[in-house]
Structures are given as structure tokens and as C-alpha cells.
Amino acid sequence: MTTEVSTEVPAEVPTEVYVSGYGVFSAFGFGPKALFDGVFSGSPAFRPVTRFDVSHCRTDRAATYQEEEVNSPGTVDVASACGREALEMAGWRSPAELPLILATKLRAPSVEPEPPAELTERVADRLGLGRPRRTFVNACCAATNAIIHGAQLVRAGVTSAVLVGGAFLVDRQAFNLFDAAQALAVDGRVRPFDQDRQGVLLGDGAAMLLLESGESMRARGAEPLARLAGWAMTDDAFHVAKPHEQGAGVAAAVTEALHRSGIGADQLTYVNAHGTGTPLNDASEAAGLHTALGRHTEKVLVSGTKSTTGHALEASGALESVITLLAIRSAVLPPTAGLSRPDTRHPLRHVSAPERVDVPYALSLNSSVGGVNAAILLAAA
């Protein structure tokens, strides 16, 4: 009798990626409690801007933290503080082993001479981090792309852990740019998916997440906070600024993130939408969700948390990923503040008041200029 020996190489089980710690800053303050108390109660953080002169602008509102309470922190300060909080929460004792992937604003040399990569270097040096150190600046998807890139490094075994995130503070350049484009809400409110929406408002935001492989966490005896079950980056290249009318890129990102995770649309509970409160973005995103989720669209809960935090631009994906993580861990969904007349063109199941729901899977979704879209699917650990 002869015994046949298989020469097939068994397929490798992909490395699972977890969040083991995070730090967060917003107009509500430092730390998750301040964020949770503000966002999950549906309390907008918008106030008159005092950081620079806005007397010539269409509105004077943004979600800015009161500078006197934190001694006027800079972008490096808030990014470093969030990174330190993430390391402490995770119990990570060897920062020199960690790469840093950071999203931040691409500034005009006339406004800020320091290149974004230099900012990343300064944050890494403050925290004593290792290499590589990489910087993402692709506008509203920058932090989401930074998180995805970090997850890919862990998944591929390039590193066992990586610190990822983004930081943005409302500044004169960004405020004037959005004002010149007539994109700011003159009524001082951000109302995603509402028929009476008037535009977006900017907001301070920063968040850093420690992503770690399951093997690394088990070796340290650490407990995961959530799992990155899936992700996707797409570009429909429809227009330099205007989103695809049917949300083709959004639909592709959601579909790919679900596919990568191995779950169906029927298992998705919640979507933290990009939700800028602008008619073109809201309509495109809602259409894309309908395409991706099909008949399950009516069951998936959706909210736009920029209605409370404002738009943190390059950092928005990191800030909103932490909000999505908090939704999973608290079993409470944050509402879309000020939503009173939902748009009926592509109806969604909106969260208009805090809602207690078990959340096994939740999606954080972002879109940017040039047809760029990105989705991160988080799962309960």
C-alpha cells in the first residue's frame, strides 16, 4: 500500500488586525468621555471662531475647542497627546518598535512653511516611535487611507503593530477656502441628509489608533477593543470636485469592504456616513449606499456625526473611526443632530436620537475630491 502525500501548500490564514488602544481630541475636548458625551447626545460643538478674523466670511461658526483651556495647542501637540493616550490605553511599552502613519493638512507654503512630513517626524520623535514614518494628505480621506495602509502593513506581516491616525485644527487657510467656495453653512448648523441643509462647517479633530495583530496581542496578554474586519479604497475619477451622481465610488468602497470582511449587507448594523450636509455629497452617498446594500438599506442605521463635531478634513476618518468604535463598545448609536426633514430621494434609516442597539459590525465611510472614497468596517472584538 502506498500513501499519497499532498504537495499542495495550505492557504495562509490572513493575519487579523485589531485596535488595542486609541486617543482622541475634538471640539468637545480630549479623551473618549468628552467625545461620547457630546456626539452621542447629539449636541453640536459649533461656536463663533475667535482663533482668527472671520468678519469678512459668510459665517463665523466652526467646532473649535476653547484655546484658553488647553493653552493654544498646535497640530503636533494634539497628535502627540492622542498618540500617547493610545499607547497608554493599549499598555504598549516599546514605542521605538512602532511605525507611524499620520494624516494631516497640506498647507500652502505662504501660510505654513513646515511640510506635512516634517510634522509627522516631530510627532514620531516626541513619542519615541520608530520607522517607517509616512504621511497622507489626500484631503477628507487622508486619515481613513492612513488607517487602511497601517492595517495592510499588519495584515502583510510587515509589522506586528502600527500607530495610525490624523490631526487637523481649524485654520484661516481652510476656513477661507471653504468660505470662498460658498460651502459653509450660513445658519451655523450641519444637517446631513436634511432637506433644509445649507452646507458644512469645519471642526477641530485628531485621533490615533494602535493597530495590532492578534498574535502580538496574545503574546502581550492584551485585550482587543475592536477588529478591523474589512476596508476598501476606491476612486471613480468622475470629477475633480463633484461626487458621482449615483455614488459609484461609495458603492464600490462599501461593497469591497464587506467582501473583504466576509460578511453580507444583511449583517451590517450601522454606517457612520461621510455626511457633509451638502446637497451633492449627501445625495451621492445615499445613492451609493442603496446600490451597495440593496434591499437591506432600509434596515441599516445611518447617522452623520459631522453634525456635532464639524468636518475635521484630513483627520475626519480617524475621528469618525473612533466614534464608530465607541458605538460598537457602548451599544449606543450617535444621532444626526438637527435632522428634521430627511431627504426622500434616496431614503435611509436615519438615527435622529441616541439609539441603543447591539452593533456587531459598523462601517465608517469617507469621500474626498477627485472621486476618492474609503470605507473601514469595524467588528466587535
Describe the secondary-structure layout.
Elements: E1 17-26, E2 29-30, H1 32-39, E3 47-48, E4 61-62, H2 67-70, H3 75-90, E5 100-103, H4 116-127, E6 133-136, H5 142-155, E7 161-168, H6 172-180, E8 205-213, H7 214-220, E9 226-235, H8 248-261, E10 270-272, H9 279-293, E11 301-303, H10 306-309, H11 316-330, E12 332-333, E13 349-350, E14 355-356, E15 361-367, E16 372-380
Helix pairs in contact: 3-4, 5-11, 8-9
Tell me what you see in this structure.
- The protein is α/β, with parallel strands linked by helices and 381 residues long.
- The protein folds into 2 domains: 17-218, 3-Layer(aba) Sandwich (Peroxisomal Thiolase, Chain A, domain 1), CATH 3.40.47.10; 228-380, 3-Layer(aba) Sandwich (Peroxisomal Thiolase, Chain A, domain 1).
- It contains 11 helices and 16 strands.
- The strands form 3 sheets. Strands 1, 2, 5, 6, 7, 8, 9, 10, 11, 13, 15 and 16 form a 12-stranded mixed sheet that branches.
- Helix 4 (116-127) links the parallel strand 5 and strand 6.
- Helix 3 (75-90) crosses helix 4, helix 5 packs across helix 11 and helix 8 packs across helix 9.
- The termini are far apart.
